[in-house]
Design a protein that fits this description.
Keywords: Oxidoreductase. The protein is built from six helices and five strands, in the order E-H-E-H-E-H-E-H-E-H-H. It is α/β, with parallel strands linked by helices.
Length: 199
Amino acid sequence: MYDLTEKVAIVTGSNTGLGLECVRQLLSRKLTRVIISVRSVNKGEDAAAKLREIFPTATINIWPLDMASYDSVKVFVMKDENLPRIDIAILNAGMTNSMFKILPGTGHEETMQVNYLSTMLLSILLLPVLKGKLPDGPGRLTIATTMLSLTAKFAQRNEVPLVAAFDDEKFFDQVDLYPTSKFLGQVFLVEVDGLGEGR
């Protein structure tokens, strides 16, 4: 079993489901500290209380993170910069919406904002933090995605500008938006990876 003693992890969207299970698995491998980042601090505290019963020696912190807000993402990363180390960052927060909804704070459709725009912004902002925190090499960034991305119809693919097309209700497809948002995230990561070291 891989020993995570003295290591620090961040897991977004981690008060339920896959994110919560990620936290549980990390703590079961003797992780010293985990940051549970959630939109609802109260729900995060409820999840943390249950985890503390099982893992009483671990440090479990709850930090607010609203992926529907660029400002919240930026504030979250500023807090991360003050951590003594970050070994693991798992970006799991995501959502799907049955109704078309534009977020007043960003002007973008909610599912695309949370699953793609804010997640990719968080990735970009975290990369230099992960690179600079550990003397023996950068921390590991993992972004949760889905096989459903293979089913994406991506009807907006020829629209220019692309992101604006997702803010147009005529393109809203409740079934396809989630896989398309995840597909775009995968494409983005391939592009970032292709930039290579030092770029």
